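During the no-cost extension, the postdoctoral fellow (Dr. R.K.) reprocessed legacy sequence entries with the updated structure-token encoder. One reprocessed record is reproduced below for audit purposes.
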Amino acid sequence: MSSVIPDARVLVAVDLLTGAGQRIVAIDEADGLHLAALRPTSATVLQSEQSFTREGALRLAQMVLAGHEHAMTAPHTLRTIAAALAAEHALAAEGA
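Re-encoded structure tokens follow.
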């Protein structure tokens, strides 16, 4: 289920390999992370494909490393961990 990302700022933007647009990782005022695809036709409205906390992504990564079968095979696990890592790197570069 998608929802509009309120008061979010983009931390990371990566060009999509399939078609025009970018996949972005944004952070909101409550430090929630949001993953969204930005298409040229929807550049003014960000629709969240996935929302999670930094702590939740860390816990998911720990579960994968521990060998938790459900965590390793759950939909979007790789994308969640990748987005969180990219966001952490961007925040560290900002000095946050």
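The beta strands are 3-4, 9-15, 22-27, 32-38, 47-48, 50-53. Residues 87 and 93 are 10 Å apart (CA to CA). The remaining legacy entries will be reprocessed before the final report is submitted.
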